[in-house]
């Protein structure tokens, strides 16, 4: 990896809710996010952070994580408790698109993207741990994450990939020939081919990231793939991952009972479709902890967090 630049915070914006885990920007520079109590919020006026307006658009009745804006004024929501949802942004109506797979309840949905053919691709971070015990999966290293696809008009999704280490963020390539999947528990980005001679196969896209990748975001085909780094590499954790399953399970039982205290290291990286680094930004000793998402909006680099009570507005990187 190249030498990182500083991730410089401009301002913190309280949103009246806890845990804006994913942040996405619309064409008008507004930011949408979901919070712990189930609400979907929209933040307007980010060009003047002192007068930001926070509007509640809907309530999923679960725990919304990854979001994907649709062209018909709707929003796809990966809800960790309720499954894959569609929210009408006009009236706040919430519709369940998928809440089971192969006859089993669909839990742990993490992120979602929609492609031009109407397909929705989404991730499940774990088959064993719920969102409030996510640290257990990171510690146990279960490898039960999944990538799924809901075809247009289908009632049930299909599993495309399993065995992923805490499957998280998703982003398409510019030509939609492949998807990039963040594996938080393995510190890597994985490529899944949608078309071409490697269709249906997966391979490494970027290995050995300097931190744990979370959500991915792409403004459009001309922009890079942004990835939020929620925390640093943890050498003792990686050593534990080499231990026997029984040892990892015992450690996970302890981890879910001990309050998690994130470090002050967060970061954001951007990659092109060849996996080359476009931007690499790091903040050490940050007061804003566990940055789980990043997007560009209203002249800011916007961070979201699964723990904080607001978003962070940061200095955008110089164009490359």
TrEMBL record:
Keywords: Glycoprotein, Phosphoprotein. InterPro entries: 6-blade_b-propeller_TolB-like (IPR011042), Strictosidine_synth_cons-reg (IPR018119). Residues 116-196 form the Strictosidine synthase conserved region domain. This is SMP-30/gluconolactonase/LRE family protein. It comes from the Bacteria. It holds the Pfam family Str_synth. Transmembrane segments: none annotated. Belongs to the strictosidine synthase family.
